[in-house]
Amino acid sequence: METTTQQSTTQTVNTDFEVRSLDTICINESQRQHPWWYNFKYLAVGLLFGIVFVKAEIISWFRIQEMFRLQSFHMYGVIGTAVVVGMISVWLIKKFNIKTIHGEPIVFHPKQFNKGQIYGGLLFGLGWALTGACPGPLFAQIGTGAGVVLVVLLSAIAGTWTYGYFRERLPH
Amino acid sequence: MLKVLQQPWPWYVAGVLIGLIVPALLLLGNKHFGISANLRHACAACFPAGIRFFRYDWKKETWNFFFVGGILLGALLTNLWIPNTDPVQIHPALANELAGYGITDHSSLVPQELFSWHSLFTLRGFIMLIGGGFLVGFGTRYAGGCTSGHSIMGLSDLQWPSLVATVMFMVGGFIMANLILPVILHL
Fold first, then answer.
1. Second label for A133, Cα 20 to 30 Å away, from A96, A125, A140, B85?
2. Interior CA angle at A130 toward B138 and A21, to 5°?
3. How many alpha carbons fall within 13 Å on the CB side of residue A145?
4. Tell me, what's the pLDDT at B83?
């Protein structure tokens, strides 16, 4: 019993950093204290993202169904191009040591492999094909007036909560 | 110009713009592109319930709420000002298949027959909306990211665990769309 407790404590200490880095949580803590309204710059980026989501029909349930039935190249083209552009950008940032607009160095954190990426990935894939949306498009679908998607979003939050509750008992 | 904006945008335009979000967030404030973490922040902010996974300073992640707020607002404004006027053009084979389940309305981005309050109270709608949403929330957190955090940000940074996750997303999607969804849509 005692070993179990100790084990789980060590594990928690280890995975906490891991989880923070894995979970796209901002571990690059800014040393500068910005007023809260600086966050509007992220709202602006999100705004553009939302426009693209709708205009390129990425949030369409139909497009996702086509993708998983190999009936359309559209989504593969979108994600593929995005990855290539992202790769080039990250490479340039690393190569030229580009800093943020506030002059801070940009930091990358390697992701640790764990079995969650397999099991969790599979479960998310199932949900993706059902709802036709990953988390980003959920917000965009609500924005286009599909009010019932609010329920999907709440259910997703409940899913995340349930994962947090059972986390230590799940294989990782 | 307005005409061009009104038509659905091709994949290469959308792909480039989405790819540019990665450097935009990094340059604006050292932020890693990722959306599903918001679901965790929502749990941490509203009902942490003493669970260790939700005990962290979520206020430091406020930027992410602003980011998704922008997504919602962007979609709303697009619908108001430059809406997609034509029905979604879908592959004839898919249109046929869906018609077999009584899904024939292609006028909006999500099929009205499935994504409505009325549908929510049918078995089919309940499984798709509540069940699907739950899987999205549970699965993304278990995997440590979603399409943005793993497939776009992770792959951009050449992280092989993200490639594993992306492959599994696709495997899950193929299984659901081709093997399980037809049964659910028949309900």
1. B85
2. 30
3. 10
4. 86
